[in-house]
Every structure is written in C-alpha cells, then in structure tokens.
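pls ignore typos typing on phone
2-oxoglutaric acid + seq
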Amino acid sequence: MGTESEIPLLDFRKVNGVTLEEGSEGWKEMSKKVREAFESHGCFLLLCDQIPNDLRGQIFTDMKSLFDLPEETKKKFSGAKAYRGYTANSHVIPHCQSFGIDDALKPDTTENFTNLMWRQGNPTFCETLSSLTSKTRDLSTLILKMIIEGFGLPQQYILDVEELNNSNDTRMTRYQLPKENKDLEIALVPHTDKGTLAVICHNEVQGLQVLPKTGEWVDVIIPPNGYIVLVGDMLKAWSNGRFQAPTHRVVTKGDKERLAFILFTVPKEDMTIKVPSELVDDENHPLRYRPFKYEDFIDFHYSTRTEKGVLEEFAGL
Ligand SMILES: O=C(O)CCC(=O)C(=O)O
Ligand SMILES: [Fe+2]
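k done
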C-alpha cells in the first residue's frame, strides 16, 4: 500500500517576524517555493496562520451534526450542476456523503443552505461556513499571486489571477469507515481537480493519496492543523504544463471517520485559458495547450466522462 509522501511542506506562519506582505523579501522567497512545489509535485502541504485553528476545528464539529441529519433532510439540498448539492454513495464517491455548495461567498448562499437543513436555521454553522470559506479564499488568492511572482511575470497577469479565481466552491465530505471485512476502501475514485486550485483540510484523519509518476500511490500525511494545496487542470494548462495537476484519491482505513473541508477555486466560466507568452519557449517549453474556454472544457469533460488525460485530449497540442 501507499508509502509516505515527500510532498514539500511550506510554512506561511509568521515566524521570527517574517511576514508574507506582498512584495517583501519573505513573500518573494515563498513565491519561489510555491512555484517549485507546483512544478515538482503539483501540490504542497501548508502550515499557516491565515485561518484560525479554532475556526477549522469548529467546522468539523458542525459538519458532524450536519451529516447526522436524516437522509431526507440532506437530500433537500439538490445542486443544479453535476456533483453539486448533496451526493451520497455515488459511483464517483462510492463510500461517502458530500455537500457541494457553489459560491458560498455570495450573500444568502450559506444562510439559505443552513435554513434548508435546520428549520430554525443554524446561525453558528452559517457563520463558521462563511468565515472559513472567506479565509480559505484569501489564502487561495495569496497563493495565486505568488505564482505570478514565482514566474517573474509582469503585473498585467494579475488579471488572469482574478479570472482564474472567479468563484469558490465549497465541499464538505464524510468518508465512511470500511466495511467490517475490509481493511481498506476506495472512497473517492482517482481524479484530477478540474478547476484552478483546491485547498483541503480535515479532522486529522488521513486518507488522501496522490499518484506520482512512479505509478505507486503515496499516502499524504497532512500535518496537525495543516492543509494541502493541489493544482487543478486549469492552472496546469495556464502554466503551459509546467505545473502538475496531481491525480489523487481517498481511501478509508481504520476505525476513525474522515471529514474533509475543501475549497475549490474555479475560473470564470467564459474565461479563455491562454498560456502567458513568457512561459513558452521553443527549446525547453514549447506551447502545450491551445487557448480554450473553461466552460467548453467542462462541457467536454461531462459529455465524455473521461477522467484520464481529459485536458490533453481537449486542448493538448
Ligand atoms: O478529501 C480529500 O482529501 C480530497 C477530496 C477531493 O479530492 C475532492 O473532493 O476533489
Ligand atoms: Fe480532488
């Protein structure tokens, strides 16, 4: 089974007065590390103080009460798009239940959600969910800005960052324990994320695995109070394939239930994903992807239902 990961661990915490203020030396140095980690692994483990630990602790307490609601209540939350709304034991996530909330930062979204789940509403959960989503989004924005710095790109590409960072989809997932006669269960099938970035935290029960080029699944060990940040297909395409978008899955083992909170950053639907010319050179980095619209890629993905190599098939040159 999976070996332990050597995924880079980045520490964004203010240590010895080092801050990540935009433009500072600390920020430039960290931007380089972000770029290197995305190039070598397509992900990094993260310790940071942008999100208070008690806030993330609270979400898992609240999520437990959410998942403990009756099935018929949870099913009331249906999503307009694929994999959104409440999903239970589908073929993609065979052993888990999950809530996918589009744009939880829009006014009313979290309130409507909590009012639907609890007849009298649930202001505490509503506040925790909005606040955690908003702070995680700020973290994603910081990381995307660091990418521009890490590549030494002109500031005009901040506009790309804004479009790549257009909306944030929140996912809350409970992974079921393996059946009594099984040591291990694949609870989320292998995939790459289709958007820009994913920031994941969990209730300290591990289970995420990544598939490096060696072809052997590797256990991801997220440090206590830590996160993992994963590159999605759109950021891989925009970076001309310099960043990897790691294939990952979730397995459950042992007797502790895993809860995960994930914030996906997704591009503006009509954004044209176009590789910056600075990231192309004939010798080492020939252009790998044609320009394309994000929404066309998503339509293609849902219509073909292919997982492996979908980006290369759709936009690869
Ligand atoms: O639960 C996790 O750690 C990963 C979840 C994930 O990869 C996803 O929802 O796309
Ligand atoms: Fe994922």
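Residues 3-315 form a domain with the Jelly Rolls fold (CATH 2.60.120.330). The longest strand covers residues 167-175. more later
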